[in-house]
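During the first year of the project, the team set up a workflow for recording each protein of interest as an amino acid sequence followed immediately by a discrete structure-token representation. This format lets reviewers and collaborators read both layers of information side by side without switching files. As required by the reporting guidelines, we include two representative entries from the current panel. The first entry is reproduced here exactly as it appears in our internal archive.
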Amino acid sequence: MGGARSQVNKPHKTRFASKSSRHVHRTASLSAKGKIGKSEGGHRAAVKGARAARIQKSKSIRDQKRAALLKEKRFSVSAPRVVVLFGLSSYANVNSVKKDLLQLLSGDDGQPTSNTIASSAYRLRTTVLEAPYGDLVACMEMAKVADLMAFVVSANSLYDNGSDGLIDPTGAQCLSILRTIGLSSTCVLIRDLPQDLKSKSEAKKVGISSLSSEMPEDCKYYAADTKEELHKFMWLFKEQHLTCPHWRSQRPYIISNEVCIEPDNSGTCTLVLSGYLRAHNLSPNQLVHVTGAGDFQLSKVDILKDPFPLNERRGHNLMESEENMNQICQTLTPDPSAQEPLLVENTPDPLAGEQTWPTEAEMAEADASNKERKVKRRKLPRGTSDYQAAWIVDGTDSEEGDSDIESEEGNGMVLDDELENYNDPEKDEDAISHFTGKFNEEETGADTEMEDDEVMTREQIEAEIKKIKDTNAEDEEFPDEVDTPLDVPAKKRFAKYRGLKSFRTSPWDPKETLPPEYARIFAFDNFSRTQKHVFKTMHELDEGSTTTCAIVGSFVRIHVKNVPIDVASRVCHASKAIPVVTSGLLQHESKMSVLHFSVKKNDLYDAPIKSKEAFIFNVGFRQFMARPLFSSDNINSDKHKLERFLHPGRFSVASVYAPICFPALPLVVLKKRDNEMPAVAATGSLKNVDPDRIILKRIILTGYPQRVSKLKATVKFMFHNPDDVRWFKPVDVWTKHGRHGRIKEPVGTHGYMKCVFNSGIQQHDTVCMSLYKRVFPRWPERLYDTAL
């Protein structure tokens, strides 16, 4: 009875539960009825085909990359991998790590004779270099060529109470500079760990946790006390896929193994450098840059037998290695018709600016404009005859109509924008019609006060100006305020300045009033297109034949000609401490132009950085002297405001005269100090090359209201004679409290003036006038400083 009475629930309909199953069922039923000819869903088949196509495409790309990598490993001759050891604190003994690695690679306990070793046990060629602790310039130069940056730390610094930890301030500064240049593949070698396994594991964990915030995410950490630990590091290093900064892979470069001098009879010499060619092929027609020396041409390129072959036999010794370095396999000489000229500056034509006789069309146009000017009617008093009108000089009265004539006839400062709308009498009458009559009634009282002030002596005027300046202290928001001189007319002192209706939208011709230095530089019609063409030419050179260029990975000896003897001797002396890097230049990179860098002041540099001060610029592999001009970076405008100092905590644009470089390149700005190592003043990167970038210097002339009445005020101490007031009348004025207005007319003989504003002005406000002029960088006295 109970079983018969039990409840039986309706089963779930799971046959067509999903949308796709219902769609398949519907299409199948319709096809069975003859309404659809296809047996399968068309949409589902299309999705299947697209997914299969994506899978096939990704598989083919993966196979191509794998084949290219295998081809590079099997058939190409790669240069030895460069491992640079950096000590992050004074506790780290980098020299002992270098000796242990070289002994491990050489396979014997003797003293290695070279920094480059071809290890048959690891099937790897490695160059081990040691960066001198505390020398930021040397560390920076070594980091530029490092394939693996191995940072060495000591675990003893974790237990020493007087230490700053695993990274001391010098190491932290060095690490920040290396980040600016661009880090290659990195690893950390931890020394002086405890012998006990548990304590050793704990100390390593503590070290990794304290270093992980300063290192890249893919950084590897190794214990490096014993030979077995170094052996594990080398095996992992052999299989590691190394990465390098993008800028370094754009140019060929050589790390010199040997540097020597071949004297010439002309007072110069040939600098001979030998080493492995890296990154790209090198043509003898290219220009090269020797770090710290400058740009030069090549006389020839010798391709030598590899002194460190990987398949080294047992009887191979140092004498045979030296014989291989002198055994020339091939010599490449430049083609005079195709060699890149060493052209640094443009030779200006002194007759290029000579005026020629005008053509008939230009003369006809001038006559037509003169006729139009004569037809223009002037406002004259009622009843004036033509004979009397000929004797009337424009702009001699203080009436509002005459002031408009002054602006039209060009007797005042000219604005870049059209002023007709602003000086339109009808619009002015509408704007100030409600107080014009009242203003004229108050002129008598204001003029009476002017007469009392005009009796003041020069010392009294200066004292009162100083008193007002003290009460209205300068603020960082208004850093461009200047005083109008008492003994020089303002229109003469500020003759190079002009007013702008709008800093963002007012036009400014970039070809107007250029300095003489612009005749010595080069410019591009389309810089981006030129850059693409230059890099395309470099890739074509890599695919060229071995008879015209040296192949990447080969051991070469380059002969750099026409090097000054003193410069070459300094390079040879510097090569004993750190390897000298010689990099190939791309097309146009020896020519001077105007380069713009995005820079930020170094937090550890306390001295102020002033515009046009001499600095050492490290841009990629290149190093040169420059006098930067700092400016803001306005995205929405083609004009940029000059900054007199590089302020900390924000980015600015530094513009310099320098050899052309193609971005992206890192920048490190060094300041040379007497009897000290150069200090890192700023860091950044190359922005672009553009001589037409407009940098404007702004000055603010200030005045102070003496008598205020609603929208109008009598302003003093902005100018000191009425001629200056008339000259600067077309320029708008503004106040620090946000009011905008214009000059109406001068009052008296000491430069007082009446101004009208768009809103009520207060007695304690300050009236300002902004003037602008275009500024340019300063040409460096010398381009290269070899004293470093």
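The second entry, processed by the same pipeline in the following quarter, appears below.
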Amino acid sequence: MASLSGRPLTSASRGHAQDGGGGSVASRGSRVMAAPEEPCGGAERGREAAGLSRARRDPAAAAMSRCAEDLASGENEEGSNGINLMEFSDEILLHILSYVPCTDLVLNVRKTCRKLATLCLDKSLTHTVLLQKDYKVNKDKVKQLMRDIGKEIYQLNMAGCYWLPSSTTDHVTRCKNLVKLNLSGCRITSLRLSKMLSTLQHLRSLAIDVNPGFDASQLSSECKATLSRVSELKQTLYTPSYGVVPCCTSLEKLLLYFEILDRSREGFMLSGQLMVGESNVPHYQNLRVFYARLAPGYVNQEVVRLYLAVLSDRTPENLHAFLISAPGSFAETGATKNLLDSMARNVRLDALQLPKAWLNGSGLLQHLKFNNPFYFSFSRCTLSGGHLIQRVINGGKDLKSLTSLNLSGCVHCLAPESLFRRAEDDIDSSILESLVVSCCNLRHLNLSAAHHHSSESIGNHLCQLLSRLKHLLSLALPVCSITDVAVSMEKPPTQPNAVPQTFGKKTRVGVQTYPRTLTDQACQKLESSVFWMLMRSLRCLETLEIIGSSFSSAMPRNEPAIRNSLPPCVRAQSVGDSEVAAISQLTYLQSLTLAQLPNIVTGSGLVSIGLQCQHLRTLSLANLGMMGKMVYMSALMDMLKHCKCLRDLRLEQPYFSAGSQFFQALSHCSSLQRLCIVSRSGTLQSDAVMSFMANCLEVIMCHMFMGESLTVCRNLQQSIVRSFQADRPALNVVIFPLLHEDLTEVIRDVPMRHLDEITLFKSRVAEEPPNLWW
């Protein structure tokens, strides 16, 4: 059965409709980070388990919601085509209703007629409730929802509901049969957590935040009894603490996110020592998955070492996934070396990620044993291509099980050796070919943040070799890797009124004109390029990132804004509008990131993407064209008029003028929810912003870091909050001067969901293993 959007039904979109009672819920959550189903081709076109959280919010949701509205209009009414929707089979109606938020189903739709009253309470719709991106839900709706169907809910996801008061979690106690509960990003105290968990005796999977003031001694014996049965725990730490880990004696999967700041708001340095009374030791004997992601800062490193100390004493026999994501330098210690040595002797891994300092210069990879690996991340490591082939792929060993590979920042990973090699030297195509042949089922590949230059050998270009990976769903490449060698050797075309690739005096630019269609000669030249052929061969691609190898965002995490930018790679100088136009072949593209493409002249390729990529939901553009002027504004505005499914837009461009014309074009994006603009010396029109917010009723996040004064920014922010907060409970507005010294203090108050997903720029392809959490 095809969906109303024209795309085949996926297993993810209908998976929740196939599960019945509580027993099926447990079986659905039993697989730990299993590889997704085969992509492309009817029912085989699968999604990761994480896609379940998006199934009701994909581009087809609008069509499904309209059908649901028709259903709600009356049982006997016929549509304009003479078809009565109420005559559809229950199976079809249930599929349509699955695209409607659960709060609307239970609180509104089911009141329209008897048939819908029965269908809206079907177990396929009520046993998994996803509120994590239902930005219109409030405390009263949650209370009524739990009162009506609480006993029917087996999985509840409230991740990122930062706008709900802490008391909202009190109503979760009505869900007596809960098996999985996600409260990441929700405010909850120790006492409330204790009261809630005391009633959830069937709980097996839990995700929570541990904030300053958390006190494990306040947890009741009933609460600890529930925690002792939890096998999956995701814990985000904002303060040095073990949280509830010592109470979870049956842990099989442990995910830790360290977001502890080095300084308090008052400016005092924080310590990584745990709070008094937290000397209990975690229980890792049954652990199968250990994952830790660290935000920048030495305190996070100190605290994670305390968690690892127990692992170094006795490595769990069933450990099959060990992943630590740490930015910057995270030095290896005696305890961590003992842990890695023990792992090399006693376990066989399926997923691995280690800090670069733990791998660089060590022979660890030579001794580690792997079973059927599905995820590797060697991000920022100095791993050479020779070592990659010999120690990981084992000289061309069959690695069909590998579905996700992150080589971001591995500057030598496609070269035979790194000792005498310069970063900009040509890659060894035989290494990439061995990788492609051995890992033929890759679905997520990240090669960004490095110079991967192809040689002039015919048929050995990086794009030609990658075109063999027919199952790819997400791909991240450096800009210099997609250019044709012959073209890159030539002098790039001169641009009218060109300015140096540096920040200079602002240049006034009128409305640009650009060719709406390509000539036959230009089309033939374009379609013969290696990047065009790569895009044509990867028709199932959903996420694409093309990022300059020397690009760095003007907004780092815990530092002042960057004032200067490194110039793009010489090989990247010819990449521009034609390469962007090639992306328009990706019919199913949902997320696109373009950063530091220097040869953007008009931006005409963006219009092609807007017209052809109708499923596009996330768009991030940064430093396109000449840095001294915004050359692609006219094309961008034309593109936005066609992006009806766009939900997230991030723009980072010096001298960006956010005026009335831009916001009028942006108002065509009727599904837009989140907007972030980062612009050194950029300007904005307050009236245009207010008009945009009034027209786009779905927008709940507006972040602008521009060159305006602090007074202008504060006044606009207060006006938006005052005008729209009442009708949009999840509204989050941050408007602040980009170069202000207090920017880092403002950033720390942004909800983690927005900060991690859109406000901060980063490559997200293969950032984590697929199916890491639901």
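For the second entry, the following points were noted during internal review. The chain has 28 helices and 22 strands. The radius of gyration is 26 Å. Both points are flagged for discussion at the upcoming steering committee meeting.
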